Amino acid sequence: MTQASLKVRFAGPLVTFQDGGRPGQMRFGVSASGPMDRLAATAANVALGNAPGATLIEVSMGGLVLECTEGALSVAVTGGDFTVEHGSAAVPCWSILALEQGDSLSIRPGKSGSWAYLALAGEVAAESWLGSSATHSTSGFGGGALSAGQVIEVDEARLREDRHGAIARPDFLPEDRQMRVVLGPQDRHFTAAALAAFRSEPFALTNAFDRMGVRLSGPELPSAGALSIPSEPITRGAVQVAGDGVPTVLLADHQTTGGYPKIATVIGDDIGRLSQLRAGDKLRFAPVEAAQAVRIARETAEARAAYLAAIAVPKGTLSQRLMRANLISGAISGEEAVPD
């Protein structure tokens, strides 16, 4: 069995092991967790040849520095526009490269984005809880948060030269900061002025931002009736408004029940985009009807499947790529005179 070891030289807060999450546990009070940006995480695994929901590392803006202390393996980096360095050389984010013994890899915030993903070619040894290594940040259950000095063991580590190079970024999602939402289920509890402001005014992300959710700044959204409602199940993407009229968007590690009214719910395909924004970034909410949200989900699912299928195809080894490439732009007869 081929094994590789990676030593954590530095890890900021909220750098955790994640996988596809643990759905089906909300009735027991356990949120699904999993990646904040599900598409970026899945792309890292699929492009590397892993299963879509394989264990990987989610890197926050706190950053991560690793050193390969044993063996060799290929890794894939996706997510926000982070700064990636392989030793002293800059490497584009959204790429696959090799780590060999003695190599270091640094991932830290770049121009944009709040989360990056590091997939490893092999079986990552991470603790499982309820059948998943996804880390629930508030309890620490699952694979857990990474810390300096920790050693990550990777069994069946593999070098996948046929996959090295750039990973195509998805181009089927909107690039603006309009987040599509379905109003409700408690929009009736808000004043007409609050609903109008929610539809038309910009909001900004605040520093109150973690894996549970992000608090927004912007126009207050006063309630027109009772502040609290009987606690009920809530979901990822819910826009919950507390008594101060300030909305919070619930994210991967959200609580499973709540008694504050929800003015709207961000559609699933926009939650990853919202999660990649940073404190101070502005957004607007764009209400859509439920039927329209279903249509968007179906269309995006088709585009997502086609995209993942495309990046899953190996590029070929270096020699195979050279054989396919046209390295000579012209032809000669072979009878040209050779100078004395």
Describe the structure.
- The protein has 340 residues and is of the alpha+beta class.
- The chain folds into 2 domains: 3-166, no CATH class; 178-288, Cyclophilin, CATH 2.40.100.
- It is built from 5 helices and 20 strands.
- It has helices at residues 38-48, 192-200, 268-275, 290-311, 318-324; strands at residues 3-11, 16-18, 56-59, 64-70, 72-86, 89-91, 95-100, 104-120, 123-124, 151-155, 165-166, 178-183, 203-209, 213-217, 232-233, 238-241, 247-250, 257-258, 262-266, 282-287.
- The strands form 3 sheets. Strands 1, 2, 3, 4, 5, 6, 7, 8, 9, 10 and 11 form an 11-stranded antiparallel beta sheet that branches.
- The model has no long low-confidence stretch (mean pLDDT 93).
Summarize it.
The chain has 340 residues and is α+β, with helices and mostly antiparallel strands. The protein is built from 5 helices and 20 strands.
Secondary structure layout plus pairing:
Elements: E1 3-11, E2 16-18, H1 38-48, E3 56-59, E4 64-70, E5 72-86, E6 89-91, E7 95-100, E8 104-120, E9 123-124, E10 151-155, E11 165-166, E12 178-183, H2 192-200, E13 203-209, E14 213-217, E15 232-233, E16 238-241, E17 247-250, E18 257-258, E19 262-266, H3 268-275, E20 282-287, H4 290-311, H5 318-324
Parallel strand pairs: 12-20
Antiparallel strand pairs: 1-4, 1-10, 2-3, 3-8, 4-8, 5-6, 5-7, 5-8, 7-11, 9-10, 12-19, 13-14, 13-20, 14-17, 15-18, 16-17, 16-19
